[in-house]
Amino acid sequence: MGTLSVNILFSSLEEEGGVPKKGVAMVSKSHCKHLKVIKGEFLKEAWLACAPLLFDDFGNKDKIIQRIKDTPLSRNTIKERILKLAKNVTDQQKIDINSAPFISLCLDESTDVTKSARLAVFARYCVGNVIKEELIAISSLLTTTKGTAICTAVKNSLAEKEIDLKKIVSVTTDGAPSMVGKKNGFISLFQTDVGHSILEFHCIIHQQALCAKSGLTSLYNVMAVVTKIVNLISSQALNKRKFDALLDEVNSVYNGLLMYNNVRWLSCGNVLQRFVDFLEDIRLFLLLNNTHSCWMLCGFQN
């Protein structure tokens, strides 16, 4: 949330009900920032419990305590303020995007843990001399993930933000056929709706992933060994408890290994780094448990 947006919102709150309502807005903002909800009445009770000690040497201690008592922190009040904050952010985003002369989009379609297809739409644009990159929408693709479905979802998301399609000058995708297909790909269909040619870019991170899969074939054997050992320790409840106990004994700074799968390919580096950090602990664990994977690990070290 921008500073200007916050100041405008807080000014309106002061006009509505003064400092107590501004305090509610600050509490609501903290809830949104940390993605955690704390019962408002519990928070007020905690404030009142410690206020006499914290403000004991303040001349206006009674006024401070009364302010805390006057601050409404019920569940409905917090919900109302969070909705106001969300609306304010959305309105400010609309103003900034529509004031930009040109807009660049970035799309990423993926399947989440519930096996639902999600499409993330990002926009990059200039506000004055500042370049901003904001999430426009996360849409659900209810049926197919073809270019037509993606094009419809993108157009609906842009319409909700009241974005002029003529301002779109470039689109970055993951290079999938549904995105870059010559006839029914998103780029081709979207250009027809926009009415002018669009610069097409392939996401550099996806390019790196493709290069890693096709060029670094020597890592396949390494990842196969690492994945097998990590699964042996982390997937079996007994082994995981024994390994956790071993980590406690050696006062490890980590609480366990990281698991890897092909979908979350960006985690490959983190998995390997954690494995290397735990290499001696893993070797000791496998030796103590007389596990066949110990010989595999010894070969890996050599």
Write the layout of secondary structure elements.
Elements: H1 3-17, H2 19-34, H3 40-54, H4 61-70, H5 75-99, E1 103-111, E2 117-127, E3 130-141, H6 147-160, E4 168-173, H7 177-180, H8 186-194, E5 199-202, H9 204-215, H10 218-234, H11 237-249, H12 268-277, H13 279-288, H14 293-301
Parallel strand pairs: 1-4, 4-5
Antiparallel strand pairs: 1-2, 2-3
Helix pairs in contact: 1-2, 2-5, 3-4, 6-8, 10-14
Helix content: 55-70%
Spans with pLDDT under 50 lasting ≥5 residues? none
Structural class by SSE content: alpha/beta
Neighbour order of strands in the largest sheet: 3-2-1-4-5
Number of domains: 3
Give the terminus-to-terminus CA distance: 52 Å
General description of the model:
This is General transcription factor II-I repeat domain-containing protein 2A. It comes from Araneus ventricosus (Orbweaver spider). The relative contact order is 0.06. This protein is of the alpha/beta class and 302 residues long. It has 3 domains: 18-70, no CATH class; 100-202, 2-Layer Sandwich (Nucleotidyltransferase, domain 5); 214-289. β1 and β2 (117-127) form a beta hairpin. The radius of gyration is 27 Å and the shape is flat. The protein is built from 14 helices and 5 strands. It has a 5-stranded mixed sheet. It starts with a helix and ends with a helix.
